[in-house]
Amino acid sequence: MKAQLVLMSCILGGLSCSYSIHQVHCSGMDYPVPSGTGRPVEVVVEERVILGFAFDTEYVERAYIQLQEECPRGSLQAITTRYSTALSFLSWVETLRLEALCVETSSYPGARP
Asked: Less packed terminus of the chain by CB within 10 Å, N or C?
């Protein structure tokens, strides 16, 4: 009985700390940007799923809007999207990290808004 309890604890403990990066996508640049012209911006959003039920399904759109708000007077270039999952017992957390280069239109004359 004691051995079964230890075995179940190890199995459940092993499930509670699993991580996975599912997808990383890097976009290109619309135009060449000189080094040091832009500034990096980043947004991280999460969605918690319990027993397969997802309650906030618009977190991707919310993340992109937040990223656009980080760069109000410029354009976003070289957007990197990383989608990952952290598994726990009967639930998981989906994490979306968006990183981009904000190129201000006033700092670079070749930039298009």
From this structure: N
d(CA 34, CA 55): 42
Strand residue runs (E) in the chain = 18-26, 39-50, 53-54, 74-88, 91-104
Encoded tokens for 2 = 């004691």
- Per-residue pLDDT, averaged over 95-100, amounts to 93
Taking CA atoms, 36 is separated from 17, 71, 76, 110, in Å, by 39, 16, 15, 14
Q: Where are the domains of the chain?
A: 18-104
Instruction: For 34-84, write each residue's pLDDT tens digit.
Output: 777 788 999 999 999 988 888 878 888 999 999 999 998 888 888 999 999
Q: What is the dihedral of CA 18, 19, 22, 26, to 10 degrees?
A: -170
How large is the C-alpha radius of gyration of the chain?
20
